[in-house]
Amino acid sequence: MPDLNSRINKVQHLLEQYDVDIFIVDDPLDIFYLTGLELSVGHLLVSTEVVQLFVDGRYLEYVKTQSVVDTKDILNEQRASEFILDCGISNPKVGFNQSFTTYVNFEKYKGYFARLIPLENFVGQIRLIKEADEIVLLKKAQALNERGYDYVLSILKRGCTEKDIAKQLQIFWLDQGADSLAFDSIIAFGENTSLPHHHPTDKKLEANQPVLIDIGVILNNYHSDMTRVVFTGQPSDKMLEVYDVVKRAQLAAMVLCKPGTPIAHLDRAARQVIIDAGLGDYFNHSLGHGIGLQTHEAPFLRDNKYTESQVLKAGMVLTLEPGVYLPNIGGVRIEDIIHVNDDGYELFNTRSKELMQISL
Fold it and tell me: Does the global pTM surpass 0.90?
């Protein structure tokens, strides 16, 4: 079980760093991370001395029996005044998550607190570094994801459609105890593999086609993600070249995965391999992203001035997913999850990245 009090203490330590007295946590995922409570809406107010959760009547009874923190009825002006009084701070500086808090909630907060300060997400910074129990859960989610991949390979038959495969995979996972899909499965045949975020269609599978499988499943609230491309017969010379380039691009980034490496350098290394192959115009997304309670969460693996100053840290869990997409021909993306540790990295994926040809 996670140490929820330790997580809350980490938020409290950030208050002094950012020179605020109170922080408002209103993202339900962050509330879950800090309290273990699954809510659709709520407000967790954190000061160095007082921590209180405010929920509406739908959750009050449930939360009062389950919560590790003091729980009150819905946040309003009176409740906010009582919280400030409990904190013993007059006219406190109150931070909020500038990336999540809605304008409607911001207007409400202005009525409760005199000094509001927009900040980057405190809890997001803490969630960057996965704890040991989170690593275990992420591995379990990925193991179920890979069983789904095996299942997809077993049902690829001539004449099946992209939609058929996506639907059967979802049923398979639910039967295996999954919470839900991490995202809509990307199953693409033939030239549809050139569309990075393709939605499955009624296109039928034929011989001598690439098949792109980008899938993820949620288990115990933690997400998984992987991409592989297989071929139903002999790939063209161009697709063989693309496959090799993408595979080498991922490796170029993966070998840099160790604490202290600037995040920008990962994207740069992978992209340079693709550029050197003359395919730079066909890699049209960032290299990858963090993964945990969300499929896409910080850190985001881009090459820019912000990520140049951000470095990998032990405990981060990332995807590496370079891709090359040739319009009306086909595309290749290879995606794995890695855990940055003190010695470098640990690869969660166990399914081969060697070029695979399957017979129909």
Answer: yes
Q: Residue 341: is its pLDDT beyond 80? A: yes
Burial of 303 (0-12, 13-18, 19+ CB in 10 A): buried
Q: Which long-range CB contacts under 8 A does 127-130 form with residues at least 24 apart? A: 127/30, 127/33, 127/292, 127/293, 127/297, 127/298, 128/290, 128/298, 128/299, 128/313, 128/315, 128/316, 129/313, 129/314, 129/315, 129/316, 130/292, 130/315, 130/316, 130/317, 130/339
Asked if the model's pLDDT at residue 240 lies above 80, the reply is yes
pLDDT tier, 214 (very low <50, low <70, confident <90, very high otherwise): very high
* Model pLDDT, residue 49: 92
Among candidate residues 153, 139, 125, 148, the one with its CA nearest the CA of residue 15: 125
* DSSP helix/strand/coil, 296: coil
CA–CA gap between residue 101 and residue 38 (Å, rounded): 18
**Nearest CA among 86, 95, 133, 88 for reference residue 116:** 95
Cα separations in angstroms, 155 against 167, 188, 259:
12, 14, 41
Query: With contact defined as beta carbons under 8 Å apart, do 250 and 227 qualify?
Result: no
Q: Considering only CA atoms, which of 345, 218, 338 is closest in space to residue 290?
A: 338
At 270, list the tokens: 């992978």
CA distance 159 to 233: 15
Structural domains of the chain, ranges and CATH numbers in brackets:
4-127 (3.40.350.10), 132-347 (3.90.230.10)
Does 2 score more than 90 pLDDT? Answer: no
* The pair of three-digit structure tokens given for residue 151, joined into one six-digit string: 């299942």
